[in-house]
Write a structure and sequence with these properties.
594 residues; alpha/beta; Rossmann fold; 4 domains; 7-stranded parallel sheet; globular
Length: 594
């Protein structure tokens, strides 16, 4: 039986209780990664799964993990590593839904930002499946509160993302501490050299399952861009929401400050919106996501980093308020709509200086993004009127408790108002559309003759993107090969010689390097005597503060302390995230360097 012929989960030999949960969750036919992955994992083989987000890989490893758990054994039997706290929570929740009818199976998500004392109490009571981030799992390992001696299955979810965030050493330490006869399952969107190095070292005769979409962007997604003056973006966005009746929407922008500004503007206009970015504490993030999933909030505004791990089904569309700085981010953004065979919409609001970034995206995805026409104020009034008439018609047809309100019109007539005036006032009040400074204006920017000089300007835009934070680091040696080289971090083009041993006050006579523009220097209370390396610092900060490891600047490690440069915009978030946290199991104090 080939995977193409598998039409239902019942053909995969699953237990009755798992099938019951799968049916309740609305799964019908297994996705390709599930049809290939579930049998391979259930037979006990090591597996490499190459699959992108949104292909159903959580169930592909979650179902076999649950099938192999022994509830009578109170020990940890499966560990699942995820790159971010959001993904760890999401994976644990989905596995929890799959385990709904399995009596006695306990699942625990462990990650930074959550109380480690609460996690310790939960682990002591007995947990069968641990879903966690590498940094926090390492903390529990070193505290001896998490033991792997009875682990039968180890899953690395989005392994490439974890390596990009600087977690390679943590992952290797965790795998090395596992029983040798365990089963190791690895999922990754790409098969880079570091990934292959891990598979070669820690897997035995793995089965390779490759399920990669031929096209980078889903054919079910309508992709349209609009040329918009920067100050009119919120106005255009609300018009698109109204025009297309988008009830569940993700809005992406490039900075945390912009997230807060957009949310405030949308809320003032009466739209149920919330924002999510790296400055929010875990409880705040959880509250925001709960309201969005429940439909209380209809618009979620997010940065790319904060949106990692967010997987909400049934999205009507995605709006790129800012064009992403990385072409791959565009693919990840719009891939959150148009899933499971449903249609979706991806609208991009393009300011003049973002035009050639859009051209780069078209070249990368090999998809022509159509230019759209901004709906006029009159268009929106017409749409709102039609919906108002439809709403009133439905209310009249229901005829429930109608008698209580039939005398209202007569009362208003006695006050001197005509029927037309009453209906017009009601329509205006319910529709909520009012004229503003954009109502009669042209919101699109006009193309200048100089804009047609594509090659020179496009090249300039690419240079600007690289020099403004796209790749701040060079790592000595190949990331997947020379371990010694991978330990070295330095800003691009700068020698790493300043990390050489010296004989000054702190065993080192060198002076800290100058702080680069746009960066803030932080002081860490750990140093060389604590056996920490640059990769430990990058992994901890990137994992806990939810910022890309590549944005972290120079790192100067002395005997008893360390200086590390982070982007100014992220400094406060790093301080909050690392407050009371540990690096390699050692408590760390962190502050702005004096």
């Amino acid at each position: 039986m080939t995977t193409e012929t598998i039409e239902s989960f019942s053909e995969l030999g699953l237990s009755e209780n798992i099938l019951k949960a799968v049916t309740e969750m609305g799964f019908e036919k297994p996705s390709p990664i599930q049809a290939q992955g579930i049998p391979a994992v259930m037979q006990g083989s090591d597996v490499i799964g190459q699959a992108q987000t949104g292909t159903g890989k959580t169930a592909a490893f979650g179902i076999p993990v649950l099938e192999r758990i022994d509830p009578t054994n109170n020990a940890v039997q499966a560990v699942i590593l995820c790159p971010t706290r959001e993904l760890a929570v999401q994976v644990s929740e989905e596995i929890g839904r799959l385990a709904k009818y399995l009596r006695g199976v306990r699942i625990e998500a462990i990650y930074g930002g959550d109380s480690i004392d609460r996690q310790i109490r939960s682990l002591k009571k007995g947990v069968h499946i641990v879903v966690g981030t590498p940094g926090r799992v390492m903390d529990h390992m070193e505290r001896k509160t998490l033991r792997f001696d009875q682990v039968r299955m180890m899953v690395l979810d989005e392994a490439d993302e974890m390596l990009d965030m600087g977690f390679r050493e943590d992952i290797e330490s965790i795998l090395a501490d596992m029983p040798e006869d365990r089963q190791t399952i690895l999922f990754s969107a790409t098969m880079s050299k570091p990934i292959m190095s891990i598979t070669k070292r820690f897997q035995t005769d793995p089965i390779l399952i490759k399920v990669v979409r031929n096209e980078l962007t889903n054919v079910n997604i309508e992709q349209v861009y609009f040329e918009v003056k920067p100050q009119a973006k919120v106005e255009v966005m609300t018009r698109l929401i109204d025009m297309h009746h988008l009830k569940s929407l993700l809005v992406f922008c490039n900075t945390k400050r912009k997230v807060d500004e957009i949310v405030e503007d949308l809320q003032l206009r009466g739209y149920a919106s919330e924002g999510i970015h790296g400055d929010l504490r875990q409880q705040q993030r959880s509250n925001v996501m709960s309201k969005f999933k429940a439909g209380v909030t209809t618009i979620l505004v997010a940065t790319d980093v904060a949106a990692r791990g967010i997987d909400v089904s049934g999205l009507d569309g995605v709006i790129n308020y800012d064009i992403p700085l990385d072409e791959e981010y565009y693919v990840h953004r719009i891939g959150r709509t148009g899933r499971a065979g449903m249609s979706g919409k991806a609208f991009s609001l393009v300011a003049r200086d973002e035009k050639y970034r859009l051209k780069s995206i078209e070249g990368y995805t090999k998809v022509k993004i159509e230019k759209g026409v901004i709906p006029s104020f009159e268009d929106i009034i017409g749409v709102r009127k039609a919906r108002f008439v439809e709403s009133i018609s439905s209310s009249i047809k229901e005829e429930e408790d109608q008698d209580f309100y039939n005398d209202v019109l007569e009362m208003l007539h006695h006050s001197g108002f005509t029927t037309e005036q009453v209906v017009g006032a009601m329509a205006k009040q319910i529709m909520g559309v009012q004229k503003n400074e954009y109502s009669d204006g042209n919101l699109a920017w006009e193309e200048r003759r100089g804009d047609r000089d594509g090659g020179r300007r496009e090249g300039g835009d690419r240079f600007e993107r690289r020099s403004s934070g796209g790749s701040r680091f060079e790592r000595g040696g190949d990331r997947g090969g020379d371990r010694r080289g991978a330990d070295r971090y330095a800003p691009a083009g700068r020698s790493d010689s300043r990390r050489s041993e010296g004989g000054g006050r702190d065993g080192d006579s060198r002076k800290p390097s100058a702080v680069e523009a746009g960066m803030t220097r932080l002081f860490l209370s750990l140093g060389r005597k604590d056996h920490i390396m640059p990769k430990d610092i990058v992994g901890a900060i990137a994992g806990e503060a939810n910022i890309p490891g590549k944005t972290i600047g120079a790192i100067d490690i002395y005997d008893k302390f360390t200086f590390v440069d982070v982007p100014e915009r992220d400094a406060r978030a790093v301080l909050r995230a690392m407050d009371g946290n540990t690096i390699k199991g050692k408590p760390v104090q962190i502050d702005i360097a004096k």
